[in-house]
């Protein structure tokens, strides 16, 4: 198929043969794209990128050939990509003809322009184009928009996708290449970012707002999300254009993804080996304390990166370096080492001993102070009825832990009758 895509269609070829190969492949459920462009090299490059992404691609060289292909009976394309400048017309007029045909009106149309003109955006909106991209246009951006819009009806307000299929960084760059406005919202409510006419204007993620929230959303946001197109009228908290995104934010994100692919898992819990830290502290940067102090054995690496003031890729690289030096160690290993070292001196739980036979005779309060037993203490209370002694077993220096309280009737205190005002139960205050 790649070989066929590298060979552009020429108008001399009969229109009936253009769909022959694709009809058989359409049964596999792959989305079909009609690519209209007279530039052979640009068309072949776009077609190769779309084919690699899993699309069926039909290439034509002009507006008339495209209309002939669309007039045939059979399955319609899921998306139309058209260059603005065509040898037998222009992309705006072609898009208007598609919208005027009731059979084709629902097919999304994206216009591509090699030369940007101020009036192009107004023309694209006037003829009902779904988006308008001007040079420089990256193949990846066209593929991202194709994945987002292919198979949907034109004019839909919401498009749904998943980060496993279309990462947030890819869809953000593609949306900034166009002229639409709207918002990208994570389905779990973790965050969102708003865009307007090629600019990111606001973002919220895990309690943060602004450019930091946008960067962290690209790093940590995952799962299903929705792209809601429509006017974004609020002022916003910052602005970021596509050039800054591509030159500054995305390179850091690529470093972050590379570390995540082969480095420390984000779910790992690490703690500090302070003895090792003292050995290598003189060789570390002064700002390393901002990273070290966040590793307390309870936070995950992901939580640490979310709290660290440094960029995510920088903090991730610093953590990986500290781990390689032995300054950071898995928290579970330290816990096991502490248990092994202190296990012999840590007392066990106090457990109640079996109670005595119920027919034991009553006894007065007797405490043998001359011969105390450090590991076993038997307390008998003088009561009118049978007593229920409780035996506690444990270390002599350890305070007793009472698991079950003995149930005893009230007894007199200071000679006062139990029914009188001076009666106090044995468990009073417990």
From TrEMBL:
Q: Which SUPFAM superfamilies match?
A: CheY-like
User: Does this entry carry the keyword Phosphoprotein?
Assistant: yes
Query: Per UniProt, which keywords does this protein have?
Result: Phosphoprotein
Domain (Response regulatory) spans: 32-150
Specify the domain of life of the species encoding this protein. Bacteria
InterPro entries under this entry? Answer: Bact_response_regulator, CheY-like_superfamily, Sig_transdc_resp-reg_receiver
Any Pfam family matching the protein: Response_reg
What PROSITE patterns does the annotation carry? Answer: RESPONSE_REGULATORY (PS50110)
Region (Disordered), start-end ranges: 1-24, 408-430
Q: What is this protein called?
A: Response regulator
